[in-house]
Every structure is written in C-alpha cells, then in structure tokens.
Amino acid sequence: MPLHAGSVLRFYGAKLLLIGMIGAALACFATAYPVLLNRFDRPPEASELLVALTAHIALAWLGSACAFPFNTRLVPQRSVSLTGLLLVLALSLAGYGLRNELPAALKGAARILPPAFRVMDALLRFGQMRPGAFAAVMLFAVVYALAVSGIAWRLLKRRLF
Q1: CA atoms of 51 and 146, how far apart (whole Å)
Q2: How do residues 34-58 score in pLDDT, each as one tens digit?
Q3: Would you say the pTM of this structure is higher than 0.70?
C-alpha cells in the first residue's frame, strides 16, 4: 500500500485523514439516529444537536489521534501497543479524578492528559456553560488531536529515515 501512495508518510497521512472522515461520519450517525427514532423525551433543539455533533466529532478525532502513535511502524509489539493504548484510554477518561487526587505540585501535569474528560464534561454541562467556554473546550480537543498527530508524524518520519 505505501508503494501506491508514493511514500510511507503519505500512506499514513491518508490513512489518518480517512479515519478522521469515518469518525466524523459515525459521529453524525450517533447524533442523528436517536433524533430520527424519537428516543428523547422531547425533540432536541438545533443548538443541542450542534453541540452533540461537535462533541462527538471532537471525541472521534481525539481518539484516532491518540491511537495514531501506537501504529505498528512506531510500536512493533502488539502487546506493548495495546497496553499503551489502553493506558491512554484510561487516563483520558479518568482525567478529572486524577486531577483532583494529584498533589498541588503535580496538578499542572493533568494538562497533558487527553481532554476527553473535558469534552464529556462540557457536553453534560452545556446548559450551564457559556458558549465561548464550550467552544474553547472543543477547540482545545481538536488542537490536542492535531498536536498528538504531529508528534506521531515526526516520530514516524524520524523512524523511517
């Protein structure tokens, strides 16, 4: 496959882009199907649908970006790769609990955790948040995903050459 793409970097870039598009499509489906099947107590407002769609897309992109550094080119052993991926998943879901339990000197370390817990919290507290605060959380998740992808891309490039 990398031969048809022209280079391994193009291959992995196309793969990451495709995974991001599939994640966005699945996020659209996950947001739309409960509405279309009347699974809510009341019909959701357009703003609620937009918030849900934005959060689902941000989480999909964040998940695929956090999984990208664990590809077989960077981590050849599947057991190590799976262990690392599960650790990242656990840390990203347990972020608030970890942040609250860390000593004061280490509270800043919680900022490097994947912001999935922040996105889920923003989704749950949307009615209590200012729109700018919600947008900042979503933007941070997307920027974090781009940063992790960029770091993995550089590691991949360094490993190839």
Answers
A1: 21
A2: 999 999 899 999 999 999 999 999 9
A3: yes
